[in-house]
Design a protein that fits this description.
This protein is α+β, with helices and mostly antiparallel strands. The chain has 15 helices and 28 strands. It has 3 domains: 210 residues, no CATH class; 178 residues; 175 residues, Beta-lactamase.
């Protein structure tokens, strides 16, 4: 079945959920039945495992002691067929690769204290480059090292990771562990236990495997810098506490129904940023609670639009003035000059999804914002590997609507992508050819906020250069990342007395009583949702009589970051296979926040 796409959120229409999908929705009782230990002999045997074990097997137990020796070097892993549920993912020829295989990849780590720290949290390209069998790239997060009774002179190491693909936006979350003694390593035992909503690989799956591994010295001179960055990231991380602490603080009754916006079996986690602390509710998987949830990077799909594209545009407006909103795409992406319909399309029209181009019908009353977004041409653009190929595809594919730019919202990843290209080239015109829109974001916005790693998917360039960030989707966010950017919006773009983003536009964006943006055709029970500057503005009417439009970052699979009054932010990471919250209440979070803060009184 060919994967369709909607809302920068790939919609792989699944008419039924296989038993494989159901493994993600295992109850706590089922998870507790899994084995909780991995013996040293199992890790040294090279025998392929047949089943998941409890996630607790990948973290130090109560009897753990410090590692005998630190770890520094590269773990060189061989490609290996994974044992999956379902047994066949049905994706043996996806972009000429096989999704059934764990990738051949080099992962370089060092220890900082008792933490196992990867030298990069960027996407490590493996499956997206020629010469390999596996479809998958990898992204790695920090883990732990320790020693355990029965392991002799060996120390243990474990870390969370995700299988990803650099042209997609989901994450398949895994845990991995190995033994080491300074110069030797065992095989790498791994399992995939959770995921966000998939793209090309339509199956919801779990997997286990044992990859042959080799320790290789890593010839680097920046170990101290890597350690300093990691310590800074720890110091600057958002405080995350368990949901039960918030219940004790404000009363469980006030919080009742917070997660009713989506069925529990489709929700990975929810949480609330409340008075300086993020309270986390759940972090589930097929093998029990997911360890290191606060370090895990989640594929958030179109949340990227507001997290990255809008932030970049508002940063440019702060630096160079609000005139950037009215800049013409054609002046910075000259490839569009041959297409008259692009003549008057502004940066602002792209961020508002109102370019006047697309593949839907000419019906505008009532509007359907996603009309035409699912069509047979989408993957011609999405799978185009390079910058040049993506621009050529989006120009070739789009048809001209009977209205002009700025009039009707029609959701298109392509418009967000070309905006990223235009902003990048505009910045180069101001700061020189070495400037890039992503390095500006990292240096001038994310770093001041304390976001020290900012991995995003990029185009694939034949010359081996890093490529252009996709911008429409593809950011891999931690909970801390999401909360920090949400707090920046809530603070009108100001951080520690410095105005990072253009405040007048944020004033228009934040929750208010007047509608902003363009009609989408989507409704809550209270009225129509509008779209404005990469945010979905959800209508919410409280019983007290007030009504508000609440800005939400939304991503395929019902990922959500909602900016409520009073500086409170609600977060949901999910894997809804139909991208429809029909089973739940889209205003559930708003009701709870109003109960907490009385923002409508």
């Amino acid at each position: 079945m060919k994967c369709n796409v909607q809302g920068a959120m790939r919609i792989c229409v699944v008419a039924w959920l296989s038993s494989a999908a159901l493994v993600f929705f295992a109850s706590s009782a089922q998870a507790q039945a899994l084995p909780k230990h991995l013996l040293a002999v199992e890790l040294q045997s090279q025998v392929q495992p047949a089943m998941l074990v409890d996630n607790q097997a990948f973290v130090p137990d109560a009897h753990a002691a410090p590692a005998h020796v630190p770890f520094r070097g590269t773990l060189r892993l061989d490609e290996v067929a994974m044992t999956t549920t379902p047994a066949d993912l049905g994706a043996h020829d996806m972009l000429a690769k096989d999704a059934q295989y764990f990738p051949k990849v080099d992962l370089t780590f060092m220890t900082v204290g008792q933490d196992l720290v990867p030298v990069t949290q960027e996407v490590i390209r493996a499956g997206s480059v020629p010469g390999t069998k596996s479809y998958w790239d990898v992204i790695v997060q920090p883990g732990r090292v320790w020693s355990q009774r029965g392991d002799g002179a060996w120390s243990r190491a474990a870390f969370p990771f995700s299988l990803v693909h650099t042209l997609e936006g989901e994450t398949h979350h895994g845990l991995a562990t190995f033994l080491y003694n300074g110069r030797q390593v065992s095989g790498l035992r791994f399992q995939i236990v959770q995921q966000t909503t998939p793209g090309h690989i339509e199956s919801y799956f779990t997997a286990v495997g044992m990859a042959a591994a080799q320790w290789v010295p890593a010839k680097r001179t920046d170990w101290d810098a890597i350690a300093r960055t990691y310590r800074s990231a720890q110091r600057d991380a958002v405080v995350v506490r368990d949901w039960s602490e918030l219940e004790k603080r404000v009363g469980a009754t006030k919080l009742a129904g917070f997660s009713d916006g989506l069925a529990a079996d489709q929700t990975v986690l929810t949480g609330l940023d409340y008075q300086g602390v993020f309270y986390l509710r759940g972090c589930t998987s097929a093998a029990g609670p997911l360890p290191w949830c606060d370090r895990t990077r989640f594929g958030i799909w179109s949340v990227t639009k507001a997290y990255a594209n809008e932030v970049a545009l508002l940063r440019l407006a702060q630096k160079y003035g609000p005139g950037v909103f009215d800049l013409k795409i054609r002046d910075y992406v000259p490839e569009v000059a041959a297409y008259p319909a692009w003549a008057n399309v502004r940066f602002d029209d792209c961020i508002n999804m109102a370019t006047g181009l697309g593949n839907g019908s000419a019906q505008r009353e009532p509007n359907d914002a996603v009309d035409g977004y699912i069509d047979e041409t989408y993957n011609d653009w999405a799978d185009a590997p390079s910058r040049a190929a993506k621009v050529a595809a989006l120009l070739r594919i789009a048809r001209v609507y009977p209205w002009g730019p700025g009039e009707v919202v029609r959701y298109r990843d392509q418009d967000m992508y070309v905006l990223g290209e235009a902003m990048d080239r505009y910045l180069k015109s101001k700061e020189g050819p070495q400037a890039t829109i992503w390095s500006m974001l990292e240096r001038e916005v994310y770093a001041p906020l304390g976001i020290h790693y900012a991995p995003i998917n990029r185009t694939l360039e034949a010359d081996g250069s890093p490529g252009h960030p996709l911008m429409a989707y593809g950011y891999y966010a931690t909970l801390s990342d999401l909360v920090k950017v949400a707090r920046l919006y809530q603070a009108r773009g100001q951080f520690k007395g410095v105005q990072l983003l253009y405040a007048p536009r944020i004033d228009q964006l934040l929750a208010g009583v007047t509608p902003r943006g363009l009609p989408t055709g989507e409704h809550t029970v209270f009225g129509e949702t509008t779209y404005f500057n990469a945010f979905w503005e959800m209508r919410y009417d409280a019983t007290e009589g007030c009504h508000l439009y609440i800005p939400q970052m939304e991503g395929w699979g019902e990922n959500l970051v909602a900016l409520f009054p009073g500086g409170i932010t609600g977060v949901r990471v999910a894997h809804n296979p139909s991208n429809s919250a029909a089973q739940g209440d889209p205003t559930a979070m708003a009701r709870v926040v109003n109960r907490l803060t009385a923002f409508c009184r």
